Q: What sequence folds into this?
């Protein structure tokens, strides 16, 4: 049409057009997700006035992230982790400010189900390790402090080398430094292990480059992972962090929460002890 | 720490922590982009209360998008196109509601630089095509209607099969249906071609699945692409759409603008004509 009598397209009109187009989505939940995604994606581009070159750089970044991702390397999850999205989704789904339960934190990529069942006080060290011996002990309790008998405490952590068993199948036994413990008649658990150490996330891909370009490092603060469950209670996935660790203020995947930092103490016999109680909410 | 005396992490506190962490970004522009991206990404997850399963579905979608992307197939650009992001970035950078210039639209993936220079009125059909012959004509003019002599009109379009030459290197000559024309002493251009037809974007990957899941189709409305340039004027990248085409209201990459839709007319001799003037803004 030869005149300029039509209204010109504007950024906000375009966003509305895309949202309107998505109205045809059969699933109401997918419709809600896609319309919100488009709104925020467009708002981002408008807010920063994204240039053609920057858009292309974004496409290139995603393409490289796709290229390095395979059945063992998941760079998109690393990206989500380092942008704080994984921790945010964990918070949205598993945290409740009103609750007295132990704060949750992310599962992480190294969880292996069906760890060996271990006795009260048994060691989960199956491999000669230069790690510092430690006793991990505590109780699983209700919000009112009552012990929970027969609760399962599924623990896993890295070796002094920085690696989890699942990362070193040719070096560590598959069940090294992981185990499922059961609380005793007083709701107590007792685990012999070694002190966990900080470790870097894989930083040789586009996410590592992005971390460096944004003045960040690739390290996680030292921690032991736990999944705690008991019949009639909400399952808990969390970490205990070592208060003496580096990177507590800059854990690269935003997993640290103040209430999960524990000061490890040395008892009169010289034994290093990490003591922490887990509080579960009723289902 | 055994008590609950610390403040619990909340979604908004987590977002603030990520934003604060990005303060160390050396480049002010990258800092601005990343902080805005994180804000909008987190706001999206909070707005829809994204579940663990939905987050994993998103990771899976991006992984598949990465898997299918290679040197010829760019699924991330298709994703950007079908979410309206490519058109939005084009609008942000190349449109000006105040300007009287022809509205721009996206470049698209099929532009090939250095098309053959063609004479006034020359055909750009190099391949026996069952397409309907058409004359594309018009002027390149200033905002006040003065003809621009010697402007370059770089045109490209698909064949009646739906494919661009670059998509069918074994069938169509490489320079079929593209050419660089120059306006004459009256600012006019004249191109012999065939009527463009609607065509689908590649829909056998994750983006095609997303289109179907959101009740959409994969078709673009019929159009001819143009890059118009002249010394002293801002270059223009746009399309002319055929008013008789399907999908004008649902072009899958959101490229259609009202002012770019042209009714093709048949002259007394039976010749189909697409007439459109391009208005350029001064640099």
A:
């Amino acid at each position: 049409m030869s005149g300029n009598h039509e209204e010109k397209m504007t950024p906000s009109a375009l966003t509305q057009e895309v949202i309107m187009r998505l109205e045809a989505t059969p699933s109401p939940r997918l419709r809600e997700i896609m319309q919100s995604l488009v709104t925020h994606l467009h708002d981002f581009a408008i807010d920063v006035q994204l240039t053609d070159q920057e858009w292309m750089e974004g496409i290139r970044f995603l393409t490289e992230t796709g290229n390095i991702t395979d059945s063992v390397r998941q760079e998109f999850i690393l990206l989500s982790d380092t942008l704080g999205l994984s921790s945010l989704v964990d918070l949205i789904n598993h945290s409740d400010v009103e609750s007295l339960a132990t704060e949750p934190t992310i599962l992480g990529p190294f969880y292996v189900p069906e760890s060996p069942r271990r006795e009260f006080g048994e060691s989960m060290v199956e491999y000669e390790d230069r790690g510092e011996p430690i006793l991990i002990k505590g109780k699983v309790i209700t919000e009112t402090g009552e012990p929970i008998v027969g609760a399962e405490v599924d623990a896993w952590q890295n070796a002094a080398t920085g690696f989890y068993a699942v990362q070193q199948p040719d070096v560590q036994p598959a069940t090294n430094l992981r185990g499922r413990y059961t609380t005793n008649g007083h709701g107590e658990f007792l685990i012999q292990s070694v002190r966990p150490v900080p470790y870097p996330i894989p930083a040789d891909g586009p996410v590592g480059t992005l971390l460096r370009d944004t003045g960040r490092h690739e390290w996680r603060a030292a921690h032991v992972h736990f999944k705690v469950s008991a019949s009639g209670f909400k399952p808990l996935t969390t970490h205990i962090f070592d208060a003496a660790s580096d990177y507590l203020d800059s854990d690269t995947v935003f997993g640290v929460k103040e209430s999960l930092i524990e000061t490890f103490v040395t008892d009169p016999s010289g034994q290093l002890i990490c003591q922490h109680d887990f509080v579960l909410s009723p289902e």
In short: Chain B has two domains: 1-50, 78-280. Chain B touches chain A through 84 residues (CB under 8 Å). Confidence is low (pLDDT under 50) at residues 1-5 of chain B.
